[in-house]
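Re: beginner question about structure tokens

> Can someone show what the tokenized structure looks like for a real chain? I only ever see the sequence side.

Sure, here's an example I had lying around. Input first:
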Amino acid sequence: MIDLSKIRHVHFVGIGGIMMSGIAELMQHKSYIITGSDKSQSDRTEHLEELGIKIYKDHEADNVVGADLIVYTSAVADDNPELLNAKALDIPCLSRAEMAGIIMSDYNTSIAISGAHGKTTTTSMMSNLLTKTELNPTILVGGISANMGSNVQIGDNSVFLLEACEYKENFLHFNHNIGVILNIDEDHLDYYEDLEHIIQAFIKFGKKIPTSGLLVLNNDDYNARKVISHVSCEVLTFGINTECDFQARNITFNNEGHSKFDVYHKDECLATFMLKFPGQHNIYNALAAIVVSHAMEIPVEQIVEAIRSYQGTKRRFEVLGHYNDATIIDDYAHHPNEIKATLAAAQKIPNNKITCIFQPHTYTRTNDLLLQFATAFGDADNIIITDIYAAREENKYNIHAKDLVNEIAHENDKVKYIETFDEIVDYIQATAQPDDIILTMGAGNIRQVGERVVKLVK
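And the corresponding structure tokens:
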């Protein structure tokens, strides 16, 4: 393991990533000299530059000269010139997850929120809970929490909270004594062989928790339940439909889609909770945060207030504005089950019709889950599919967004392919009606469509 006491200058390759930028900011606060590189400029890179961090606009070998340690993101290829030169100069290199794992070791309580879906939302909810206590937590979220106004909060060494991504088994580098498993689903098949491979990774994540620690787990999720028998720590379960330690009952939704529910702990009503975000999936996310907080002996009154005052996270059912009295919402959903959950949540809000504008994310996911995507849009009245967002990939499958359109058409003939964002904006201008919900969806840059439509009003 790297001895950080001997490290002075840390260089981040791909510093603009949401978690990379948070770790960089945290380490600068700990008095390390921080530099970084990123080809894409963003709010995050601008923020880091405002903090005095030098950021190179391209990946060049000379950027690493003088650094004592290199931290790189999973999106960086092995032939990156900075990584190659670092190895030539014998500069130690750590992945983002390895760096986070080392940092976690300094904290008394380390909480890692994992799952195929809902990690960012649950981590944001949990951050709102912790910051309303006397604790002074350090927090890393994979999105911009509205309550924090950031993806990072720097506290003392008592509690460390972070989002734990399963991609490439990154979360196995973490040193957590409280772990959360929200759900386990088939995804990231550019790395994992199959669903069983993914389940085994989550089992390893659970087994990393020490005997004195805690695993909080969604008992309604069939795959997540498979982890329980493999861990040695205490396990607390939550759910809605199965017998578990903490259960949401008496669930109702108001006209805005906001939920109200009672949480029972071993048949005793703990409290009634109100959540300002629609969808049953968000109740599961809230349950996870409630259980962890209860286990940490946070007073129930504080938990109730923190859930009620949770303001959401950027790109998670985020209302961008309105056009012609239609509501423009943006969401990060990029997996078939996330699409289903988000559209089901939208249906809880009274509407004229729901238009879903979906940007598929990565060729691998589109190819491997094509038939699942085809049946995911049942709650949409109109569906627009635009080009696949490549992210880190090349199109070795020769797949096109039109292939997805053809599959969806077997289930819903209200689907069409529109290539450019300009054409999509024109379509919305021509078709948006009062009380419509227009939902941009995907993990790429599809949000820009919603933002442009809202600007038309101004």
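Each token stands for a local structural state, so reading them left to right follows the chain. The CA atoms of residues 399 and 457 lie 36 Å apart.
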